[in-house]
Amino acid sequence: MIDHGEDAAFYRAALLLGLLRGQAVIDWADQILGSEATPPAGFVDISTTPPDDLTLLRERLFAVATPKESAVVVGRLIGLVQRDLVSGRRTFPDTMTVLKQLRAFMAVGRDLNEQLKTLGVDVAMAAAGTPERHAAEQRVCDWLRQYE
Fold first, then answer.
1. Is the distance from CB of 46 to CB of 57 less than 8 angstroms?
2. What separation in angstroms does the CA of 58 have from each of 10, 19, 49, 64, 129?
3. What's the burial of 116, exposed, middle or buried (CB within 10 Å: 0-12/13-18/19+)?
4. pTM of the entire predicted model
5. What would the DSSP string read from start to end of the chain?
6. I want to staple 51 with a disulfide (CB 3.0 to 4.6 A). Which of 2, 17, 19, 22 is the partner?
7. Diameter of the chain measured on Cα atoms
């Protein structure tokens, strides 16, 4: 049997950060239920949760998730942040807010924490509309590109 704990941690964190909608979690749980002869514990509960009840979905995901987000999970989350920025779903200021929340709420490693902190400070310290601000924003976009 496959351990889906890391995927559950990813979906739980993505819901918390507003990177995915509840229906994506329901679809994932349904796919797992449809592909395994013996449904993993907790997946029926996830599958039958109303997709707009994000608190209950996160609670039910917590029951099957790994206790801490791995570096792989954090990388997948940053990939969603990058996708949302490039697609126009999220503005640059909103992207910076999500990165700040990621840093505050997720178990990011020391190096990643410092990278996010430095990028955020660089953007915050540069006045809007200046070449310095444009360069700081470009550094964030370039950094995010590695998570495509």
1. yes
2. 11, 13, 10, 10, 39
3. buried
4. 0.92
5. ----HHHHHHHHHHHHTTSS-HHHHHHHHHHHHHH-SSPPTTHHHHHTS-TT-HHHHHHHHHTTS-SS--HHHHHHHHHHHHHHHHHTSS-HHHHHHHHHHHHHHS---HHHHHHHHHHHHHHHHSPTTSHHHHHHHHHHHHHHHTT-
6. 22
7. 59
Length of the chain: 148
Rounded distance between C-alpha atoms, residue 144 and residue 83, angstroms: 9
Whose tokens are 């592909």? That residue is: 35
> Which two tokens mark 139?
């550094």
Token couple for 125? 């310290």
